[in-house]
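Quick one:
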Amino acid sequence: MRTLALGCIVFAVGCTGAAAVPPPSVGPLPVPPQPDDATRAGATHATADAQQGPIVFVEDDYARALAEARSRGVPIFVDTWATWCHSCLSMRSYVFPDPALRRFSNRFVWLSLDTERDGNAQVVAKLGPRVLPTLYVIDSANERLLTAWPGSLTAVELAGMLDEALGTAPDGKLKHALDVDVAVTHLHDTKDAARCTSMASDEAPRLPPGTALADVLRAGMDCADDLPPKAPERAKLAGLVTLGDKVAADLTQPILADDRSDLWDYVVAGYRTLGEKEHAADVKRVATAWAAFLEDQASRATTPAARAVFDAHRLLAYKALGAPERAVPMLQQSAHDFPGDYNPPARLASAYLAMKRYDDALGAIQRALGLAYGPRKLLLYSTEADVYEGKGDHAGSRQSLSDAIAFAKTLPATARYAKLVESLQKRLDKLEAQ
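Output:
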């Protein structure tokens, strides 16, 4: 089963997400430790004064955001994200700066929370994001949760969500599409794969263009892939893949480039599920279009950060083409542009591993480990173990897994990636038995 890729699943290797019914009130949120002066100096702590000014986020400081929101009598908008989440970076580079959202700049206090930071652990645990990004609106007077949306949205769709939070219902078509998104994703999350597949297959052709359509197609393909081979609903996968292929290739569809790329990823996987040999030409065709689209998007980016949004998916597309070496120059550029970011060397390690350049992969993943923080570091240890296995160094692999498990014990209980730690322990146990 593939991991549903709408936003970024917090405890998974890749980026995924899902729409969900807004959760109930979470009650007053804990105030995390205050950032030190150096952190304050490096972060943006102002909200735009002008009604039509750009959105400016308070970074990793819930207490300050709450105090400011109460003093101004406005709600708090919270973006929960992480540096490894390409959907989160897409929102930060392509959605929040959109002029269409400027009318909201002074109607909220805008708070950004890096979910991997220890100082945010209590607030993040209370909010409980299941996927990244998850976007929240909180009543600052009583800290009641007004609404939440797990996953990414276009600027127009986010504006509809914000209007609804402020008391203005979104367009009827948009609301219906989001309701279908919620329903299909609920079936996906509750493992009701048969009903999920059927609803996605029935509803997707009737949905208007937009993020909800892409979400429903991805959820439906994932559910169909999870069904037993003889389940009658599994036959609907072919239709979902065909429609997904059509939607992804239609550049007039109003979805984020990152979400379009996610959809292409699922279409490639769907064709493979339908038959590696029978659909080899489809896989190559789609992967070629996918890679070309991402290269074009990256070439249009106006900043290094906006270009790097596409790094993770370009690596996936090149792997789908059997050409991981094409990712190396872009990842080397990102490592140069962002020397403090562990993601470029971690992705380089993945590319080198696919190329069987084990020594280069080991050097890259160890550079990434030296920069990494928070629970995502567990996945880097897992990659390091993979590299040692590729080299035939079982002792090195055991050490990497042992280091991962030891590191997990230092993390807050809410951020230990329990299933991942369990799988790492099983892998270690197997190696030790051998």
